[in-house]
Amino acid sequence: MEKISSKDRIRHAAVFLFARHGFAGTGLRELAARAEVNLAMINYFFGSKRGLLKVILDGFFEEYLVIAREELVGEESLYTRLSRFINSAVRYFDSDQDLLLVTIAELPHDDPEIIEYKANWARQMAQILDKEVCKPLKRETGKEISATCVGPMLTSLMASRFLFSPMMERVRGDAGESVSIEAYIEILTSVFLQGLLAQESQQN
Q: Among 52, 68, 75, 124, which residue's beta carbon has the most beta carbons within 10 A?
């Protein structure tokens, strides 16, 4: 079995703890103990707890942008490309739910540096959405919706299953199992695209 480096152990431990206690609620000593490293190693590898959060954000958003570029770009219909993007993005969110919680839910409004850091990633996604979704949408349906509206709306919908799952587990109780990922993707795609692309969806 390949040994996990100290740097990776710190990153994994941070994702686990930030997802459960929040960025502000996680202490460096607690983080070092979970990662089984010396406290000084956190600053050595990442500079600070904020620097560590930035590395975590980079890892998530880099992959999210790769998915957007691969699935939204192409000659197929907008309906087909958006369906493909939703499918891949939801499965990516499902593959590391703690990472999703940290990157999407952890937005410290009192930390302008982190807000701007996230905004830089959001600008890149907005550029993709504007070119591949918003402009084609206007041409095909006449609807004019900005990328800064579509991006947060779609991401929030896709992430909702995972953001609310701890609460929904208590709501369901013994009533039954949660909706499968496949069914969730199908429902979400139908709800979102029939609203956004009513004319296009009827043709597919």
A: 52
- For residues 75 and 162, membership in a common domain is answered with yes
Confidence of residue 197 (pLDDT cuts 50, 70, 90): confident
128-136: long-range pairs with CB below 8 Å, 24+? 128/65, 128/68, 128/69, 128/72, 128/73, 129/68, 129/72, 132/68, 132/72, 132/73, 132/81, 133/72, 133/78, 133/82, 136/78
pTM attached to this predicted model: 0.89
Per the CB < 8 A criterion, the answer to whether 85 and 67 are in contact is yes
Least reliable range by pLDDT among 56-65, 118-127, 144-153, 168-177: 168-177
Domain range for 42 = 1-47
Count of structural domains within the chain:
2
Orientation of helix 49-72 relative to helix 39-46, angle to 10°: 50
12 shares its domain with 61: no
Structure tokens at 88: 């891949």
Give the number of C-alpha atoms closer than 13 A to the C-alpha of residue 203, restricted to the C-beta side.
Answer: 10
Distance CA 69, CA 75 (A): 13
CA contacts within 13 A on the Cβ side of 50: 11
